[in-house]
Design goal:
Helix content is 25%, strand content 29%. The chain is of the alpha/beta class and 261 residues long. It has a single domain, classed as Purple Acid Phosphatase, chain A, domain 2 (4-Layer Sandwich). The longest helix is centred in the N-terminal third of the chain and has 19 residues. The protein binds fe (ii) ion (2 copies). The site of one fe (ii) ion has 6 residues, from loops. One fe (ii) ion binds next to loops.
């Protein structure tokens, strides 16, 4: 059994490179489930109905979010419509949408849980560790495999979460920094882990944004309107293989494509 997870899809370039790469990713890796983070799908911030459909149409089974979940008001109209978007599970009670989604395919059930970190994130969220305990007790008997997208800034918080859920979930993937880390591994009790999957979008910007604008922001301290960078595009993803006989993971591999769009 194989799960493909795509790092934060950023703007139009991210959606285009995803569309172009999915047939290749599918034929190279033959994934059973394809999950993607879409918190930057619309213009680099948030997601819209059309951008969500565009991503799902490429063969993505569920879209996870992050700190930009509510960047576009439009999401409030669509998030409870049954669309396969998962928002962080540790938002306060009463927030629309769902923090978990169970995808059923080929006779298998994959639960996808999204969480937000609290270190350097400036978001009013509940403890992600207590939240995942609650989510896992809810999911008992309801899923064959569980994947967590932990959208967080600090690697320490993500590594802590990896060890915290090791053996209780199949995959614990970090997102948000837009830079892929080279620490992918199978933890001691069988959970596939990476601190950050990276970003699918502009390859020549500063974490997706036009580099001149961000350099101006750092050097002059003036506010700038973020625009997605132009030029080459990248796909950052991971593919995990699970041995169905004993439910143990056998492999996690990083995927890193650079393409001219
Ligand atoms: Fe992001
Ligand atoms: Fe983020």
């Amino acid at each position: 059994m194989k799960i493909l997870f795509i790092g934060d899809i950023f703007g139009e370039i991210g959606r285009k490179v995803l569309k172009e790469s999915m047939p290749e990713l599918k034929s190279n890796y033959n994934p059973d489930f394809c999950i993607a983070n879409g918190e930057n799908a619309a213009g680099g911030r948030g997601i819209s109905y059309n951008t969500a459909l565009e991503i799902l149409d490429t063969g993505i089974d569920a879209i996870t979010m992050g700190n930009h979940t509510w960047a576009r008001k439009e999401i409030l109209q669509i998030i409870d419509s049954g669309i396969r978007i998962v928002r962080p599970a540790n938002y306060p009670k009463g927030v629309p949408g769902k923090g978990r989604l169970i995808v059923e395919k080929n006779g298998m059930r994959l639960a996808v849980v999204n969480l937000l970190g609290r270190i350097y994130m400036d978001q009013p969220v509940d403890c992600p560790f207590q939240t995942i305990d609650r989510e896992l007790s809810y999911l008992k008997g309801q899923a064959d495999y569980i994947l967590i997208d932990f959208h967080a800034e600090a690697t320490s918080e993500k590594i802590a979460m990896g060890y915290y859920v090791d053996g209780r979930v199949s995959c614990m993937f970090g997102t948000h920094t837009h830079v892929q880390t080279a620490d992918e591994k199978i933890l001691e009790n069988g959970t596939a882990y990476i601190s950050d999957v990276g970003m699918t979008g502009p390859a020549e910007g500063i974490i997706g944004v036009d580099k001149d604008l961000i350099i101006k922001k750092f050097t002059l301290g003036l506010p700038v309107q973020h625009e997605p960078a132009k030029g080459k595009a990248q796909v950052n993803a991971v593919i995990v293989t699970i041995n169905e006989e004993n439910n143990k993971l056998s492999e996690i591999k990083r995927i890193n494509y650079i393409k001219k769009i």
